[in-house]
What does this fold into?
Amino acid sequence: MGALKTALRPRVLEGTGSELSEYFRVTDVSGIAVVFQNVEQSDLFASVIRKVGEMLPEIVESRTEQKVNSLIDAFLPNIALSEAAVIEAQMVAEAKTDVLRSGSFVTAPKIAELAGYSTKNPSAQPHKWKKDGAIFAIHHKGTDYYPLYALNADDNFRPYKALAEVIKIFADRKTGWGLAYWFEAVNSFLDDRKPKDVLATDPKSVIAAARDEAEDFPNG
It folds into this structure.
């Protein structure tokens, strides 16, 4: 393909009318002449035209590839989702909506505001907590949101230590969203209370509830 590109690469020539005419007469090649009205136009546009001309093979090849891919897509059948897949997607969307509307999650700048951290890089501290496994976050439309119930207002809004233990227990079993669902859901082990509501007052029970679920569902 590289050799083909080189062979097809056009030459962009500059010169007077007589100079170009002589070149075409001697070489017997065909070409297209771009005529400028004055020297100023030539100085302004010549370099641009030269670059475009030299890149024509790549431009044509790129457009051809796009056309071919579009043609392939046109021949491919539409993928029909099963009813179960649609229902599952709806359930996930509803669960995420409930979490987002709960008011339990805030951005890093809000945490920085509450704790009095530097506003120059408000994501620095929450990001470090997440990296260290001290807190989790949910990602929504390009932004990380952190659970407000996980922050101890009496300790300068640092994460409760019990949260790190819960995250460790679930390890790779739950993503940030999975942890959010678990904390937001009523838990029978906690007498039908939500883990988020008792994390501050009864952390040992929350840890026990996490262990109970991890043991009952070892694969997630």
Notes: The chain has a mean pLDDT of 84.
